[in-house]
């Protein structure tokens, strides 16, 4: 993935956002948020498959969320590519406060009003649930800085489902509370973006591919 060329012949910077491999919470339909749990056996296999695919065309830099499910996935990729992995708390998953570790049905039964607000992309108050726009801004800002610091290269960020969806929404210049046209990534799938050259402020990006599986290079 290093130093691809744009249609104009100039070096194009690429941002690759990768969701971590499967955990037991993923398998059981539990909301993870910032609970720090490892990959399960299926997730480790997914990470190995993704690592082998990425090694065919490696990035220049790998940065990970510090949560172990993301870091384990990133380390597998880094080992296959001969790259060190750094971590950045800006890439933590969206915090879900009192809901972390619960299933959707459990949340709906205990907090029906707040659950309805969550599903309707409205702010949830009083439960320490991180606001959608705040997550998008947090992750997108860190992505923009990495892209600015690595012009002409490919930056890979290994992070989490909600963090990725909300970051892409922000990087496309869309409203995190209103826009619903972006499906979430599956485990060990990835999306690729590049800076939007027509944006004078250098804040916007365009989405080149989304939810690409580990078996595609």
Summarize the structure.
The chain is of the alpha/beta class and 217 residues long.
Q: What keyword list fits this structure?
A:
single chain; Rossmann fold; alpha/beta; 217 residues
Overview of the molecule:
The chain has 217 residues and is of the alpha/beta class. The chain has a single domain (4-95, 130-212), classed as Rossmann fold. Helix content is 36%, strand content 17%. It has 7 helices and 8 strands. The strands form 2 sheets. It has a 6-stranded mixed sheet with strand order 5-4-6-3-7-8, sandwiched between helices. Strands 1-2 form a two-stranded antiparallel ribbon. Strand 1 (4-5) and strand 2 (11-12) form a beta hairpin. It starts with a strand and ends in a 5-residue tail after the last strand.
Beta fraction of the residues? 15-25%
What name goes with the CATH superfamily?
A: Phosphoglycerate mutase-like
Helix content: 25-40%
Q: What is the number of helices? A: 7
Radius of gyration: 17 Å
Work out the count of structural domains: 1
> Roughly what is the average pLDDT, rounded to an integer?
93
State the name of the first-level CATH class: Alpha Beta
The CATH topology annotation reads as Rossmann fold
The major sheet is characterized as: 6 strands, mixed
Set down the secondary structure blueprint.
Elements: E1 4-5, E2 11-12, E3 14-19, H1 24-28, H2 41-55, E4 61-64, H3 68-81, E5 85-87, H4 104-110, H5 112-119, H6 132-149, E6 154-159, H7 161-171, E7 190-195, E8 205-212
């Amino acid at each position: 993935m290093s130093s691809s060329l744009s249609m104009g012949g100039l070096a194009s910077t690429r941002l690759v956002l990768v969701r971590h491999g499967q955990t037991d919470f993923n398998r059981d339909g539990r909301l993870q948020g910032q609970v720090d749990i490892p990959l399960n056996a299926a997730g480790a296999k997914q990470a190995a498959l993704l690592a082998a695919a990425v090694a065919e065309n490696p990035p220049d830099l790998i940065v990970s969320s510090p949560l172990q499910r993301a870091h384990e996935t990133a380390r597998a990729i880094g080992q296959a590519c001969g790259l060190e992995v750094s971590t950045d708390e800006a890439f933590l998953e969206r915090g879900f406060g009192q809901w972390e570790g619960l299933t959707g049905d459990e949340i709906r039964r205990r907090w029906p009003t707040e659950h309805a607000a969550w599903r309707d992309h409205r702010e949830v108050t009083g439960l320490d649930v991180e606001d959608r726009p705040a997550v998008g801004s947090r992750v997108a800002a860190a992505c923009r800085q990495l892209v600015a610091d690595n012009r002409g290269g490919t930056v890979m960020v290994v992070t989490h489902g909600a963090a990725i969806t909300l970051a892409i929404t922000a990087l496309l210049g869309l409203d995190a509370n209103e826009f619903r046209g972006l499906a979430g990534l599956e485990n060990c799938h990835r999306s690729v973006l590049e800076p939007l050259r027509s944006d004078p402020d250098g804040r916007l990006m365009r989405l080149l591919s989304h939810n690409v599986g580990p078996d595609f290079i």
